[in-house]
Amino acid sequence: MKPSWKLLAGLYPFGAGAMGVNLFFASLIGSWLGWPVLTPWQAAAGGLAIGLPATWAFACHLERLMKEADDP
Fold this sequence. Notes:
This protein is mainly alpha-helical. Helix content is 79%, strand content 0%.
């Protein structure tokens, strides 16, 4: 099921922000393995990029739940 553009536009700032925070903390955990730590700006840019597919998946899930709630 394809989510509406309004739903995607409303959820995208939250999805991009959440993915940016997750990416930053993942880079901190990766520093234990000797990987470089991302700056907050790099993590925010990465969150903008990977936030779209995450938002799309969550919006599809919400559309399914709304359809299920509407069907008797």
